[in-house]
Amino acid sequence: MFNKLATSVLTATVLMAGSSVSWAADSCSYRGVLDDKFCDENKDLVADLPKDETKWRDPNTLVFTYTPVEDPAVYKDAFADFQRHLEEKTGKRVVYYTVHSNAAQVEALRSGRLHISGFSTGPTGYAVNLAGYVPLAVKGSAEGFQGYNLITIVRSDSDIKQMDQLKGRKVAHTSVSSNSGNLAPRALFPQSGIEPDKDYKVVYSGKHDQSVMGVLSGDYDAAPVASDVFNRMVTAGRVNRDDFRIIYTSPKFPTSAFGYAHNLNPDLVKKIREAFSSYRFTDEMQKTFGGADRFVEITYKDDWQVIRDIAHATGTAYTKTGLQKLAEKEAAKAAKKRAAELASQAKSE
Prior knowledge:
This protein has 13 helices and 12 strands. The chain has helices spanning 2-18, 72-78, 80-90, 102-110, 124-131, 179-188, 208-217, 227-235, 266-278, 283-288, 300-303, 305-313, 320-348; strands spanning 61-66, 93-96, 116-119, 133-141, 144-145, 147-155, 170-173, 201-204, 223-226, 244-254, 257-261, 294-297.
């Protein structure tokens, strides 16, 4: 089943990349870097609402999901109360749709199966350019939006004390599309005298928590990870902070973006925006999300500038070809992981 899922994600993405535009955008004077399905005449870098009102969508059931950075089941439970709030504010049924890869999440939004979504920082650009995603908020507090840092962790008993000592070591990045787990290290580490792939061997762990656990177990000498994921693991008791040393901390990045499909009816969008702005996190959500207690309004044009700069510096293209490559790599990793699980299961039987 897992291999079928990975194959279907890749197939859908390839078809998406090569298909003719069956629901082409309205006559458009400017698209910028957006896919040719979309228009950006106000130049805010996200897709405009279609000019043709018959293309506005007002579904009876809204489909919501959150990025698959860690165990999807954890976040389905965490957002249950917010889903009820969305239902109250929109007057519609809201269901949670579990996705298993970033490429699958983008494809679901692009195909119209997903309406409201939280994308992790790196893949947000793919969602905006290829799927008509309109980011509107990030997690935060009364003081402002919640950010995170790229941190490089090693074991506390490691002989690695500074970044240039990563030369010749085995370092875990998370996934190709991850901002803090791959793109930011490639853009920022050279400033600290270290270049991934050239000065150290990059291995992909798949997820931030797997990088953390891999460093702890000694599988990796070091790992660049998102500080918020690391802190959540410490708070949950999954790891002990004293078992690690942080040898690098980056400037602050925005966390996962929350937003909606560009072609939703503007009256519905108004209700969705009100749902996000009026909601206050439950105690359980605050624990899960590092003390954040609300959604804070952002714009993709301004607040994702640093992320786009990192993508540009690393040659990451938020294009169909880029997403196809991402899907191929995610499918390959999923197949490899499944093969390892089956081998382990067979060994134990």
